[in-house]
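Exercise 7. Given the encoded structure of a 330-residue chain, write a plausible sequence.
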């Protein structure tokens, strides 16, 4: 069976680095959406609890309910409140959505400071706050999200100054948060109420050296087991489309991981494992072949590196890993 291991010591190391930036564990809101970036919602929630993290961020209410016992506060990014509780805050992403929440529900107002995706326009914030009060909702915080926190262009500064301006004209009793992983690490003096940290906790934050010199440790490793081995002779072919052709006699084995498990098909024909083992041919739904005889193969232990082969980012590679894969904390 393919399997995932999660390194507790690497995860805690990353959380130490993050806590150094936020100033305390209490200011870390760990982002656990999409099955904790493929790491496993329950596994990561449990580890975070053990470390002393009290805040979490998820996409759906169902995710919040599944981990409610581990945290004191959970922010739901994009869902309705079907059964609100005092621990859960729901995001208002659109002024028209305010009416969908029942009186007494805890909410946070997401403001679009320049991302152009979700959130209330800056010009609509006063109206939104009035509507929230009229509806009898408990407004807890105002927050925003950056589009370019990991990029060397001016957008980050523009969004940041938009948010700073906004803070001055809304009630100061509200909490404020704007930082994802990249924004937190590029900030010199973080002073907000919390930071919403995802990829950094999983050890795959990448950003230009000019912005932050970081060396976090990847938490997740993916392994596959051998189904079968064979000797290839010169000009033998392997897999769908017969795209691999051996130049000389060699040994190839088939392993039990494929795109049905989340091993992205775009890694076909050119993937190389961290141990330098070459893939042979295309990735199939449930298996893939490598020039190896090992019983168990490390597919990757650093999603950022593996993502390069798939021409994507660590986020997509990680969240592609299916929930059915066995996850074990080591
Ligand atoms: C996913 C997400 C985050 C976390 O981003 P990272 O880059 O993984 O730290 C923070 N805030 C919001 C609104 C998000 O959707």
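Solution.
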């Amino acid at each position: 069976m393919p399997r995932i291991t999660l390194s507790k010591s690497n995860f805690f190391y990353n959380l130490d680095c993050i806590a150094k930036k936020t100033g305390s564990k209490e200011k870390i809101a760990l982002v656990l959406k999409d099955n904790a970036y493929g790491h496993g919602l329950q596994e990561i929630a449990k580890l975070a609890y053990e470390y002393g993290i009290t805040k979490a961020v998820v996409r759906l209410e169902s995710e919040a309910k599944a981990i409610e016992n581990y945290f004191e506060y959970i922010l739901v990014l994009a869902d309705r409140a079907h059964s609100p509780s005092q621990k859960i805050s729901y995001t208002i992403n659109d002024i028209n959505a305010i009416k969908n929440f029942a009186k007494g529900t805890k909410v946070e107002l997401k403001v679009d400071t320049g991302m152009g995706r979700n959130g209330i326009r800056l010009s609509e914030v006063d109206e939104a706050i009035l509507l929230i009060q009229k509806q009898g909702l408990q407004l807890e915080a105002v927050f925003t999200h950056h589009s370019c926190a990991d990029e060397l262009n001016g957008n980050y500064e523009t969004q940041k100054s938009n948010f700073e301006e906004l803070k001055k004209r809304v009630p100061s009793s509200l909490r404020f948060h704007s930082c994802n992983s990249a924004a937190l690490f590029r900030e010199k003096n973080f002073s907000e109420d919390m930071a919403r940290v995802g990829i950094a906790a999983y050890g795959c934050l990448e950003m230009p050296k000019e912005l932050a010199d970081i060396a976090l440790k990847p938490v997740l490793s993916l392994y596959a087991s051998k189904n079968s081995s064979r000797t290839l002779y010169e000009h033998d072919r392997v897999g769908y489309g017969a795209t691999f052709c051996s130049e000389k006699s060699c040994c190839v084995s088939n392993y039990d991981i494929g795109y049905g498990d989340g091993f992205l098909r775009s890694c076909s024909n050119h993937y190389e494992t961290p141990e330098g083992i070459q893939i042979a041919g295309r990735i199939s739904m449930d298996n893939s072949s490598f020039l190896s005889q090992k019983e168990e193969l490390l597919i990757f232990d650093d999603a950022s590196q593996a993502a390069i082969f798939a021409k994507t980012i660590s986020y997509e590679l990680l969240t592609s890993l299916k929930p059915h894969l066995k996850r074990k904390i080591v």
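Remark. The CA atoms of residues 261 and 324 lie 8 Å apart. Students should compare their own answers with the one above.
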